[in-house]
Amino acid sequence: MARPTMEDVAARAGVSRALVSLVMRGSPKVSDQRRAAVLEAAGELGYSPHAMARSLASRTSHVLGVMVSDLHNAFFAEVVDGLDAVAREQGFELIINTGGRSPARERKALESLLSFRPAGLALLSPVVPSAAIKSAADQTSVVLVARSSRLSTVDTVNDDGGRGIGLAVDHLVSLGHRRIAHLDGGEGTQAAPRRRGYLTAMAAHGLEPRVMSSEYTDAAGAKAVRELLGRSGMPTAIVSCNDFNAVGAISALEDAGYRVPQDISVVGYDNTSLAALRHVSLTTVDQPRNEFGRLAAEALLQRVRGERAEPVRHLLHPSLVVRGTTAPPTTSPR
Amino acid sequence: MARPTMEDVAARAGVSRALVSLVMRGSPKVSDQRRAAVLEAAGELGYSPHAMARSLASRTSHVLGVMVSDLHNAFFAEVVDGLDAVAREQGFELIINTGGRSPARERKALESLLSFRPAGLALLSPVVPSAAIKSAADQTSVVLVARSSRLSTVDTVNDDGGRGIGLAVDHLVSLGHRRIAHLDGGEGTQAAPRRRGYLTAMAAHGLEPRVMSSEYTDAAGAKAVRELLGRSGMPTAIVSCNDFNAVGAISALEDAGYRVPQDISVVGYDNTSLAALRHVSLTTVDQPRNEFGRLAAEALLQRVRGERAEPVRHLLHPSLVVRGTTAPPTTSPR
DNA sequence: CTACAGCATTGGAGCGCTCCAACAATAGTG
DNA sequence: CACTATTGTTGGAGCGCTCCAATGCTGTAG
Question: Can you give the residue ranges of the HTH lacI-type domain (chains A, B) (predicted)?
């Protein structure tokens, strides 16, 4: 279990510890002969550098901390992929932690990440108060993904939720729909800009908006639809706040005898793997998740390298993915 | 950005650095008066211990490394939750890494986790060759989740896939089904024990088995069903290798005019969040994922504390979750 | 043959912490 | 009252590494 140290490698290769250090860091000022000897000794002993000792001695870290608010959400998996790709390519490691969407747990997770003195910290949709983020930003570089902030010391990467919903509304209008309802995300992250985007888009088309209050779950989507069914003036299309909500809505519509998309069109948001299932085949709005991660990593690394001090605010363009749950409205145009 | 050190706290509190260390580690042999002074100074400076320096000096680590083969799979999220809960409770931190189901990337991920000299390593469904696992096990304690191994130095936590499929078959038989087909998982992880479980269960009931070769995706499930449709002797029930496959199968069945569960029953495996959607409502087999994580963490910590040297092999019992895709067969019992 | 680059190599200090032996101060024993 | 325990506190060594100033070495110019 005891791993060899640099000293062991040095002794075996017949050189000094400092020389081994130079070889391990790929310094050019080492003779080929000694380099070969060191690498051979290292190979024989199965030596690999001790990351913690290295970072302690160099007073620099090659670690980026990532706090994922919810590991269960596949959304974050792709963001992490993007982060991972860029970090790895630049010689940084990721250490990931999870907060489980609870402010208290998230705070602990943050604390624990900071105790590793990471070069930077990426917080994916954190729920901690702004003050906690500020205090983290005093200690290391911080980038926020899927959460906005006015703090001048942190970078942010978000999608333009308003624009995304706008795409959905435009699509429906171009198919001929005029009575388009929105099932909103209540207090959920990004629900507000999506709702505003809906209202703006409807106004732009001179249409009457209709917002049903809902949430980011399939049960909530079904409930909102049942409320809609109980009232007059059934819409011909629904724009949900996310994919789960949309699937719940579809389910309730089918239970009530509506066919999707023949009788009513439904659009989701997020383009989760669920939406892509042929059984579901949901028209939805895609966020460039991988790009979120890449940009977040790049923002962090720019700060780490001291290339930039002013905050950067990325606002990415979502795109519409048309599948099988949208179609022109049938008959009765009014 | 520069964080205070123990020395700073000691100076401010008017004590020695060693005393601050004792306070930080919660030692009982510190007078209340000094303890208070130290904690106050630490609070004022916003001090928190440097995890890396600590682990370097103590030659012990409070870090457990976790390699997740695929972050996109929600299965692992719950395993990580279980690991996290137990680790946190015992004062350990998790550092997570991902291998993206590629042996080469996974190997690098392993290397990078090892460079932190973690107290233990949990590998979730790794795809690297056994030799790589053995070499990791030479350096630290290792537990494998959702992958078996004969290595005497590693612990394993798995579900009894054969038994899980057996539960599904028993359920269908008790409903009155006799023509039950299995869509298998091909080369996928755990596909073999599930297939064997199917054959065993069918034999136990004196029924004729029928295995359609398939894969762990919804497209593959649909394809297998279309092949089934082209032949004679349509089964009255299908046991899929996983939930995605089952959803694809249902979709193809409905396209062909079959109603589920009236005309044909379908059972999945894994109890993913997909299965729980009311729109899907899939009868499926649940694996105790959180329990996987808890047991893995406990196995690791036992080894870390030197309480056990012999390997432990956990084989957990899956359970059946009955939802809306199974029902007694209609008429024509033959 | 000395002087001086230029280069590869090295010992030592130190990163922030833990651990240990040693210590002072107080309490308990005969 | 000297003596040993007991309790609380401390300086110093050292974890595995990086960094720096200093070293030895070769080669070339004066």
Answer: 4-58
Let me know: does A47 contact A9? Beta carbons within 8 Å. Answer: yes
The answer to whether the CB of B305 falls within 8 A of the CB of B148 is no
Q: Collect all residues of chain B within an 8 Å Cβ-Cβ radius of residue A278.
A: 218-219, 222, 248, 251
CB pairs under 8 A between A and B: 125
Closest by CA to B98, choosing from A117, A95, A301, is A95
At A273 the pLDDT is 86
Q: Which two tokens stand for residue A89?
A: 């390519």
Q: What is the mean pLDDT of residues A81-98?
A: 89
A233: helix, strand or coil: coil
- What DSSP line would sit under A123-148, residue for residue? EES--S-HHHHHHHHTTSEEEEES--
Three-state SS string over A236-305 comes to CEEEECCHHHHHHHHHHHHHCCCCCCCCCEEECCECCHHHHCCCCCCEEEECCHHHHHHHHHHHHHHHHC
Amino acid whose CA is nearest the C1' of C15: A57
Q: Closest Cα partner for A290 from A84, A62, A69, A65?
A: A84
Q: Is B131 near chain A, with CB under 8 Å? A: no
Write down the domain spans for chain B.
6-58, 63-159+288-316, 161-287
Residues 6+ apart with CB under 8 A from B251: A277, A278, A279, B218, B221, B222
Interchain pair B115, A51: CB under 8 A: yes
Which pLDDT score is estimated for B334? 38
Q: Up-side HSE of residue B187: CA atoms within 13 Å toward CB?
A: 1
Residue A122, judged by CB atoms within 10 A of its CB (0-12, 13-18, 19+), counts as buried
Token pair in block for residue B329: 């067969």
Q: What is the reported pLDDT for B333?
A: 42
On chain B, the residues whose CB falls within 8 A of the CB of A248 are 277-279
- Among A151, A147, A142, residue whose Cα is nearest residue A297: A142
Q: What is the pLDDT of residues A7-58, one digit of tens each?
A: 999 999 999 999 999 999 998 889 999 999 999 999 999 999 999 999 999 9
List residue ranges whose Cβ is under 7 angstroms from nucleic strand D.
A 5-7, 17-18, 21, 24-25, 49-50, 53-54, 56-58, 60; B 15-19, 22, 28-31, 33-34, 53, 56-57, 59
B-facing residues of A in 36-55 (CB < 8 A) are 46, 48-53, 55
Instruction: Indicate if A161-287 has the same CATH topology as A6-58.
Output: no
Q: Give the residue with minimal CA–C1' separation from C19.
A: B58
Fold of domain B6-58:
434 Repressor (Amino-terminal Domain) (1.10.260)
The answer to whether the beta carbons of residues A227 and A213 sit under 8 Å apart is no
Partner residue facing A218 (CB), from B78, B140, B279: B279
Is the pLDDT higher at B3 or at B286? B286
Superfamily (CATH H level) for B63-159+288-316: Response regulator (3.40.50.2300)
> How far, in Å, CA of B99 to CA of B124, rounded?
10
Which residue lies nearest D15, CA-to-C1' measured? B57
Is residue B177 within 8 A of residue B236, CB to CB? The reply is: yes
